[in-house]
Amino acid sequence: MAKMELSAVINRPVEEVFSFVTDLDKMTQWSAELVEVKKTTEGPVGLGTTFTTAVKFLGRRTEVDNEVSAYEPNKRYNIKVTSGPITGGGGYTFESVDGGTKATFAFDAEIGGFLKMAEPLAARMMRRQYETNLATMKDLLEAGA
Length: 145
What we know:
Elements: E1 2-10, H1 14-22, H2 27-30, E2 34-39, E3 50-57, E4 60-72, E5 76-81, E6 86-97, E7 100-111, H3 119-142
């Protein structure tokens, strides 16, 4: 089991940060491992929304099914990964702070499939990837994306 928690203060209002993170069409802009995102339910993103992502990790493309498991506007957005070599759940909490928004990402992952035999390495690589994603998100939002 790989667990992680990362935070960043983004110099933008909480409403803007939440909107950006929950916009499935923008996920590939800030999440480098995502190649494609396809929503598989109708209507706006909210609790119960499902979507499939094409993920490139360690040079392999894998399809992953996801479900929004918590959705509280401007407060919390969690995703449960329901298929793929890494399953689990987690997401973002958002908090207004002086000068912007504190976005905290937490994830508990069960590593399986072809990654299971290299679990410690895969966990370290995932952490670095999510650190990069959070920094990219911050850069894009602060640049007015």
